[in-house]
Amino acid sequence: MLKARQGKEVVVRMANQIGGLAKFSKHVAERGVNVLAMNAWVEGEEAVVRLVTDDTLRTMDVLNENGFEPQERSVVLVDAAHRPGILRHLTDTLARENIDLTHLYASATIEQDDCLVVLNSSDNDRAMVVLND
User: What does the pLDDT read at residue 120?
Assistant: First the structure.
């Protein structure tokens, strides 16, 4: 039902401007990077983007080359069944073990049976163990 593994996400903070995310996405796409999951929001004058791709090194390279100053961070990647209640099961499992989530986002489509959940917690190593039980 759940399969957790260590992964990497790329985090970018940039000026919040119209077309900024389009420019960002263009550079990533032109390098042939496949985005597996992404989360973006605005904090004041700044936009924050978190993404998991099929090639973290290439993603970091293209963003650095284009002045984005990306940061690479460790996360837990969870392959999960795409069905009602899976998020509850995942979060209940972590809560029972007193593991605090710092962020979580996911990627899924209606046509697929699986989804990808990206999370960071107070103890990623333990989170992987309990989610794989």
Answer: 98
